Amino acid sequence: MLHAIGLIETNSIAKGIEASDVMAKTANVSILVSKAICPGKYIVMIGGDVAAVQQSVKAAIALAAETAVDDFIIPSIHPSIMPAISGGNSIGEVRAAGVIETYSVASCIEAADAAVKAASVEPVRMHLAFGIGGKSYVVLTGEVADVEAAVKAGCEVAGDKGMLVQRVVIPRPHKQVVEHLL
Question: How far apart, in whole angstroms, are the C-alpha atoms of residue 65 and residue 19?
Fold first, then answer.
């Protein structure tokens, strides 16, 4: 289990690769994701103990300078977030669907973590910046009131960073819509 995760998102692929190197060299962390994303940005996600993640992200931000788009450090990531990033969680009945759409990968993951910590919801999946112009979104499910509370909490996080694009809550989404979300 990860104690903390951190991420930096750059608008330069070269600087993103260099940031991954400085993150790995700065402290005892594991690189979880290091890759180019749309539209020509780069993300590096690391995991480890809180202090190590903080040191590595701080070093990457300093190195990336003006190429840094967004970043985060989440000291205690909710256990449902990493599976959602990797392709999706197994979900039963979808009573309501909430979608939080952001301008960055970092703000989407932060919003999703805040959402699942705020209410009894599950992240169905996250789509992180591939083929959608660098935007990202998370789909959440649960009871309508929980989805509304979770989406509100997640939107506050993304909105505070100026990275919120849009949000919706759909009570009882149509079966065909649900099939395409999973």
Answer: 10
